[in-house]
Amino acid sequence: MGSEQADRAVLFYESRSFNYDDSWHDDFTKRFAAEINIQPGQHVLDLACGTGLLTFLEADAVGPSGHVTGVDVTPGMLRVAEFKKRKEPEKYANVDFYQGDILKLQEIEALKGKQFDIITASSALVLFPDPKAAIELWAEFLKPGGTFAVDSTHPRNLVPGMVLERVARRLDLSVPYNREWSQNESSLKGVLESAGLKVDKVITVENQSGYGKRQYEVGQWDDFFVENVIVKDVARTFANNDIRRKAQGLYKEEWERLAVNGQVEEVDSVFLGVARKPADGSRYVPSSSSKETVFEGGCRCGGVRYTSTQQPSQVTFCYCRACSRVSGSGYLPFCHVDDDALTFTHTSTMKTLVLSKAAERFFCTGCGAPIAMKYFDQEVTGLVLGSLDLDTFKGAMPNVEQHIFLREKAPWVTVPDDGAKRMEAFEEMEIK
Ligand SMILES: C[S@@+](CC[C@H](N)C(=O)[O-])C[C@H]1O[C@@H](n2cnc3c(N)ncnc32)[C@H](O)[C@@H]1O
């Protein structure tokens, strides 16, 4: 029996199998293969191999003395792959395909006891509910020193689908992908490292499907709702009328939240990571995680958790209208930590929202708690002070340093006379 994820993937991909190769995947797999140093004679495992676009490129690279194994769960995708192999049986004698659920790789008979020089998973990681657990399992099939290559999406890639994912999460429905955790190159690096692999590189591949960037009008939400929730709903997730009605309102809300100046931007990029299992076969421990954690924190329900290896600094009370609204209070208190000191350890209910040009906010969709604010173009994150677990805190909490955005302060809030700096607006604020 496959996992629930696998069953949904089959529903999603079976009908797409026949035309799958007439898409940008053909070009993208070439760019993916070019980033891995595949040598003649090597043994490669291509996970979620689909119709074999990447698998056959790998077979060309390893040559007759090497071997490539492709695994996928969707019968239609594998039928296309087998058809291509049959067209060139001699050339591709070094390729074998197996049907199986890669979340249960240990159950695939042909893989028992095997380890590979290289494992790849192209255009697949964001299909899995727990990317760290998936990579940990796959890494067991990697030889010591072996290479693992994978990609994950830019947060505004295929933005109508991202909105759909947020709607489904709010309605407690599952969709066949999980992209919310993939925010930037660091998120992919963090997932690879947390699974015990040492990252060689993470790059941003632009123009994945050839359009670069697109702007949509905020009013276009309805077109995307019809396309994604009604026309493309092969798994019949939203088939019930009541659910569909609720989904419609939420889709509009989530779409509008992504809009800046009336436009929703779509970015045609993905992050591509290449990592290694340490040569002695151990788990890689990144240097930041070998530093001592000085505090932990998270939301009320535990769906979002983080650790910091740095003391909090620059305690700031923000009185802007957005902070007031998201907190339901007069202000939000933040402290700052450098991005490389901060690790999100649980993100199952984490969601991001862009409410201004300055930053992206992180929330928990399980209990509604605001968690953090990631400033664009700065390697600093503001953590909502109330999310810190004070019982884990080692050190002294710094005093309040500044009260900001007082120009937008609600009239019923009194700013404490605590000697901290007071600023009317953002331009005066310096993030340290
Ligand atoms: C977007 S396609 C990528 C195919 C190929 N890697 C490529 O780059 O062209 C995603 C593939 O993941 C496969 N897949 C999804 N979940 C899977 C699972 N649990 N086990 C095996 N394959 C899975 C689907 O069947 C589909 O073929």
Automatic annotation (TrEMBL):
| GO molecular function ontology, one term from the record | metal ion binding
- What's the name of the protein? S-adenosyl-L-methionine-dependent methyltransferase
Q: Which PANTHER family match?
A: TRANS-ACONITATE 2-METHYLTRANSFERASE (PTHR43861:SF1), TRANS-ACONITATE 2-METHYLTRANSFERASE-RELATED (PTHR43861)
Q: Name the InterPro entries for this protein.
A: CENP-V/GFA, Methyltranfer_dom, Mss4-like_sf, SAM-dependent_MTases_sf
Q: Which GO terms describe its biological process?
A: methylation
- Residue span, CENP-V/GFA domain: 295-413
Q: Which organism is it from?
A: Paraphaeosphaeria sporulosa
Its keywords, alphabetically, are:
Metal-binding, Methyltransferase, Transferase, Zinc
The family annotation for this protein states: Belongs to the Gfa family.
- Domain of life, source organism: Eukaryota
Pfam families for the chain: GFA (PF04828), Methyltransf_31 (PF13847)
Q: CDD domains from the entry?
A: AdoMet_MTases
